[in-house]
Amino acid sequence: MNEHPTTPIITLTTDFGLKDSYVASLKGVILGIHPHARIVDITHLISPHNIVEAAFTLMCTYPYFPEGTIHVAVIDPGVGSHRKAICVTGDNRIFLGPDNGVLWLCSQRLSNFSTYQIDNHALFTASPSYTFHGRDIFAPVAAHLALGMRAQELGGPVARIQSLNLPQPIVNNDAIEGTVLHIDSFGNILTNIHRSHLAHFDTDQRQYIIHIGQITFTGISQTYAEQRMGETFALFSSSDFLEIATRERSVAALLGAHIGQAVVLKRSIRNG
């Protein structure tokens, strides 16, 4: 029988990798405070210092965890500087991380949120390192929150958190001009064009024309399986962002794609 059925989950998202002691240190601190903590690794393979990649990954992931989950995101190139350590709460979820934009995308999806600065030093490990706030600040704070501490006990309110300067798609009557936002481990290209951006178009999805780099193709598919091997196509990802893929190939490698590259989606002339 589970003796602690209401213990919230603590998730970890970092750029620490899997080779070194860093991830285990976080877990050791959490378990030292809360031996029955339930810890889930979202990923520790965020590209080093890539705040946008981490913010996007966490935004796409957190809705599938139960309410009450505590999400810890430590991608912190400014560790030891004057940047704040913050706690964002909303929709019965908690997010912990540096105030560098890594929590911003999640905050924008919450119906309402509050932010607190983490400055209750009694919760930190003894003699916190200037270079490892993940272990010495965020991990112990997550454990105390999982034990029932309220976010308001972490520190005073924060009026505004750091945003991310992300490019937004340009939508006009005939086209949407977007960019490559993320390339996943399969080499699939995720753009910043969301399904909702197509809402005012009446074009059949099979008739859209997509331009990226030197290639142009037509149609937005439903699945990978309906395409021929090696064919490049577009579909909406499980997170509802326009994705460009090549069946069982890395489309990013084939196209030499990169973050920030332009992607244009146009209505077919026949539907214009």
The radius of gyration is: 21 Å
Oligomeric status of the shown chains? single chain
- What is the 3D shape? elongated
- Per DSSP E runs of 2 or more residues, the count of β-strands stands at 15
Distinct helical segment count: 5
| Share of residues in helices | 10-25%
CATH topology of the largest domain: Rossmann fold
**How many structural domains?**
2
CATH superfamily of the largest domain: S-adenosyl-l-methionine hydroxide adenosyltransferase, N-terminal
Q: What's the CATH architecture name of the largest domain? A: 3-Layer(aba) Sandwich
The end-to-end span amounts to 62 Å
Order of helices and strands: EHEHEEEHEHEEEEEEEEHE
Structural class: alpha+beta
Strand content: 25-35%
Mean pLDDT: 91
| Sequence stretches where pLDDT stays below 50 over 5 or more residues | none
Summarize the main sheet: 9 strands, mixed
Structure description:
The chain has helices at residues 22-33, 51-61, 104-109, 133-146, 251-255; strands at 9-14, 38-43, 70-74, 85-90, 93-98, 114-117, 170-171, 175-183, 189-194, 209-212, 215-218, 220-221, 232-236, 241-246, 262-266. It has 272 residues and is of the alpha+beta class. The protein has 2 domains: 9-153, S-adenosyl-l-methionine hydroxide adenosyltransferase, N-terminal (Rossmann fold); 170-271, Elongation Factor Tu (Ef-tu), domain 3 (Beta Barrel). Strands 7, 8, 9, 10, 11, 12, 13, 14 and 15 form a 9-stranded mixed beta sheet that branches. A hairpin with a 4-residue loop joins β13 (232-236) and β14. The chain starts with 8 loop residues before the first strand and ends in a 6-residue tail after the last strand. The mean pLDDT is 91.
